[in-house]
Write a structure and sequence with these properties.
The chain is about 40% helix and about 20% strand. By secondary structure, it is of the alpha/beta class. It has 2 domains: about 5-140 and about 260-305, Rossmann fold (3-Layer(aba) Sandwich), CATH 3.40.50; about 145-255, Rossmann fold. α1 (about 20-30) packs parallel to α9, α2 (about 45-50) crosses α3 and α6 runs parallel beside α11 (about 315-320). The protein binds 6-O-phosphono-beta-D-fructofuranose. The site of 6-O-phosphono-beta-D-fructofuranose has 10 residues, from loops.
Length: about 325
């Protein structure tokens, strides 16, 4: 691959608040270096279909505060096939794209890894997912907004739970990960947090629920959707064991993924977008750009997508001490 004159940028997988701030940073940093920028619509699907648009300073005006992604996003099955990737590369050539920035999560980086190796195209990834489940960055773009969305919803639920003296099971997102449940559970003072990364002793949960009944009106149990037993199953078990409890289930769903990004997410996205373009020009490829201990950090795609299974034990201890 020769000199980089044109950079392509796309968003893929589940959208996350802050993706627009990342797109803006990639576009403006490219222009700062006198490069051309092409936006790819609808992720890898749009790359295959040739939905590419030149971008300029104005294309990214006033988007830093908007949730979602102006480039739209998809989860592409076609890009998993060699034929799909070949069609995508034909469009890379047609639009004279010399390097690509992909913003997304595990699926996005898996595709980027294969594609860049197959065609020798320099590709860098920005971690854009609310799940915070990538290795090589302390936080992913969208995670902070999502956990703030959760605590604002749980604060509201707490008001009504407290008035009725109810037990609320709240199921939050995180396809394979309990990191949304863990932090938002601590932040909202949940009485218990159930996540796939740590075993739940159901008898101990029952015991604590019963004990806390003597001095607490409402109880909130945060459940990560990625657990083998989700919110519905947990609420059924509690109803069965304590028929007198007034139990309600609330599945927060996609409300967690929307809305204006927090300042933390906007700044993270801006830092990572600038770093990605600088790094492409410095010869980086096949890596995710993250922030570790407040410094820019590069992780090969195949390492970034390894599943996080270990949870910070200090956070689990905090839950134990503070939840009752
Ligand atoms: O990966 C982000 C995420 O929001 C997960 O937490 C969730 O399991 C999944 O996407 C939901 O995907 P969809 O928007 O396709 O329903």
């Amino acid at each position: 691959m020769g000199e980089i004159k044109t950079i392509g940028v796309l968003t893929s997988g589940g959208d996350s608040p802050g993706m627009n701030a990342a797109i803006r940073a990639v576009v403006r940093t490219s222009l700062y270096h006198n490069l051309n920028v092409v936006g790819v619509m609808r992720g890898y699907e749009g790359l295959i279909a040739g939905e590419l648009v030149p971008m300029n300073r104005k294309s990214v005006s006033n988007i830093i505060g908007r949730g979602g992604t102006i480039l739209k996003t998809t989860r592409s099955a076609a890009f998993r096939t060699p034929e799909g990737r070949m069609a995508a590369f034909e469009n890379i050539q047609k639009f004279k794209i010399d390097a690509l920035v992909v913003i997304g999560g595990e699926g996005t980086f898996t595709g980027a890894n294969v594609f860049s190796q197959e065609y020798g195209l320099p590709v860098l990834g920005l971690p854009g997912t609310i799940d915070n489940d990538l290795i090589g960055t302390d936080y992913t773009i969208g995670y902070d907004t999502a956990i703030n969305n959760v605590i604002s919803a749980v604060d509201k639920i707490r008001d009504t739970a407290e008035s009725h003296a109810r037990v609320f099971i709240i199921e939050v997102m995180g396809r394979d990960s309990g990191l949304i449940a863990l932090r938002s559970g601590i932040g909202s003072g949940a009485e218990a947090i159930l996540i796939p990364e740590s075993e739940t002793d159901i008898e101990e949960l029952f015991r604590r629920l019963e004990e806390s009944r003597t001095y607490k009106s409402s109880r909130i149990i945060m459940v990560a959707e990625g657990r083998h037993a989700g919110g519905l199953e947990v609420s059924e078990k509690i109803k069965e064991r304590f028929p007198k409890y007034d139990v309600r289930l609330s599945i927060l769903g996609h409300i967690q993924r929307g809305g204006s990004p927090t300042c933390m997410d906007r700044v993270l996205a801006s830092r990572l977008g600038v770093a990605a373009v600088d790094a492409l020009l410095a010869g980086h490829k096949g890596e995710m750009v993250g922030v570790v201990n407040n410094a820019i950090h590069f992780t090969p795609f195949h390492n970034a997508i390894k599943h996080i299974s270990e949870i910070n034990p200090n956070l689990l201890r905090i839950v134990d001490i503070l939840s009752l």
